[in-house]
Design brief:
Bound molecules: FE2/S2 (inorganic) cluster
Largest sheet: 3 strands, antiparallel
Order of helices and strands: HEEEHHHH
Strand order of the largest sheet: 1-2-3
Structural class: alpha+beta
Number of helices: 5
Shape: elongated
CATH class: Alpha Beta
Number of strands: 3
Number of domains: 1
Distance between the termini: 45 Å
CATH architecture: Alpha-Beta Complex
């Protein structure tokens, strides 16, 4: 199968690879797996507690090129967004941006789920403090 140029670009030059310390107060961590292929994606956000804006993001993905490209793209997209805005990112937008073929759509779903999980985790940590 041929990967699109954007997939290859993100795969060869992944943005924001790495981890934050997940015990940090202002970090949210989402870890999701794809039952279809066994790939695993970890996506983290760093939130400014004053503004509620996502200031930085990191990912580690054990998976195919499309999964890596999807997570790389999403870490770029979430920066500067509020938590609400970040959860509105749709896998269809990711798939469209990367021109993913139908068999690779679940890779983009992984990225959507990972960002939602990261936001959930952050919210859980801050459930007792006013947002
Ligand atoms: Fe998951 Fe592509 S099948 S690596
Ligand atoms: Fe399964 Fe890409 S995440 S093939």
């Amino acid at each position: 199968m041929a990967y699109s140029d954007k997939v290859i670009d993100h795969y060869e030059n992944p943005r924001n690879v790495g981890s934050f310390d997940k015990s940090e107060e202002n970090v949210g961590t989402g870890m999701v797996g794809a039952p279809a292929c066994g790939d695993v994606m970890k996506l983290q956000i760093k939130v400014n507690p004053q503004t509620g804006i996502i200031e930085d993001a990191r990912f580690k993905t054990y998976g195919c090129g499309s999964a890596i490209a999807s997570s790389s793209l999403v870490t770029e997209w979430v920066k500067g967004k509020t938590l609400e805005e970040a959860t509105q990112i749709k896998n269809s937008q990711i798939a469209e941006e990367l021109a993913l073929p139908p068999v690779k759509i679940h890779c983009s779903i992984l990225a959507e789920d990972a960002i939602k999980a990261a936001v959930e985790d952050y919210k859980k940590k801050h459930a007792t403090t006013p947002a």
